[in-house]
Amino acid sequence: MGGVLAIFGSDALAGATQVAMMMIGFIAALVGLKNGLTWAEIEHSIIATSAKTTGPILIFLAVGSLIGSLMLSGAVPTLLYFGLNILSPTYFYPLACLICALVAICIGSSWTTAATVGVALIGVSYGFSLSPNITAGAIISGAYFGDKMSPLSETTNLAPAIAGSELFSHIRHMSWVSVPSFALAVLLFLLIGLNGSASGGDQASIAAFLQTLDDAFNISWINLVPVILLLWLATRQAPAFLAIMGVSVLACVFSLIFQLEVLVVFAGEQTTIGIIKAFWLVLYDGFAITTDNQSVNTLLSRGGMSSMVNMAWLVIASMTMTGVLEKIGFIDFLMRAMLGFVTSTASLIVATMATCLGVNVLTGDQYMSLVLPGQMWRAEFEKRNLHNLNLSRTLEDAGTLTSPLIPWNACGVFMAGSLSVATLDYLPFVFFNLINPVMALVFAFMNIKIIRVHASDKIRLQSHNNGQ
Fold first, then answer.
1. pLDDT tens track for 242-296
2. What per-residue confidence (pLDDT) applies to 460?
3. Residue 464's pLDDT is what?
4. Which residues of the chain have pLDDT under 70?
């Protein structure tokens, strides 16, 4: 895997990484066969592991449709238009981070934040001639901080459930590490903005960009209704696939009502059959536009389920590798081997974080990086009289936050696909996700905010558990 990334770089996700993971699965399967396993047993493990990714793959494909339909309906062009008029180039990076943090706190989803607000902010960065790599880092930093701090987030609920702590106590305990980490991240984005080009590029080109958007689309606040509806559905914890596909269909309807000229040009004909074909096309192959402004054409011509097929291939290849490695005992062996290095509270937290990162790398699954280490280390935390809040916070510090930094992890795949920025390109700029684990290690070694359980508390907790 390392060799492929070194040789192909950011192009590895086009297929080289997938082949590497399939080869790893193949070699590991040979090891399993040599050790007495049958191919039927190995294949069953691959199928069982791959079945867990059906939901994320459906969401990947649905998001592809969503992006295409939001382009056609004028939602993304409207966000770009207002963003270029409101946001300042100098303060764009920290504002992008803060905006995504606020949205993610409200809806509890880093994925939805990136697929909606994040896509628009990437577009604004191109308009300002700013770095899309740094912008993606700011978007992901804000989205993951908001996701981490939101009681609506799946991972924020999963971590305390696995560790045995209470949700809001878990969020408060995380804030000791996450808030200063996020503040440092925002400060870094601010410094980059202040030390960069204050003009944010050629003002004439920005004016031309805005004029092209205004000429090509009917720019109006009403175009944002599908985006607002999707964010509202996220706060109501509606099933993601149903919400995203439903909003994609609504966006197509909005294009018929408010962007008829754009729709007719895209369809190539003003007939009922032509319009229906256009809707189908935008959902499976994305939106395309031709104007005199090449920047607008490049930015808005995207989306569709087909744009996410390569990402789905990546996830399937990752699960093939994971299924074999799990079956032959490789992952369990690595996790158990780490027990010998645990000699103190700090080393226990380090081992837990390393396990979370390792599971993220080996399985490509954010949820597994919380569940497996949580189950493995919970007894050790209790044995050392450490409150379960320490475990739940550590799971998030290392499991949740490292997931978008790994190219073949489902989160890394999703962010790269939604924002059109390769994982390895945005990785150096995801400041919050990089700073937070380091801050957690500092707290561990300096014994800061490490909660211990006293004997009386332990008895009371055992009585409570027995009562349940």
1. 988 999 999 999 999 999 999 999 999 889 999 999 999 999 999 999 998 887 8
2. 53
3. 47
4. 10, 13, 197-203, 454-468
Q: Residue 16 has what pLDDT?
A: 85
Q: What is this structure's pTM?
A: 0.75
The single residue listed with the structure tokens 């949580």 is 374
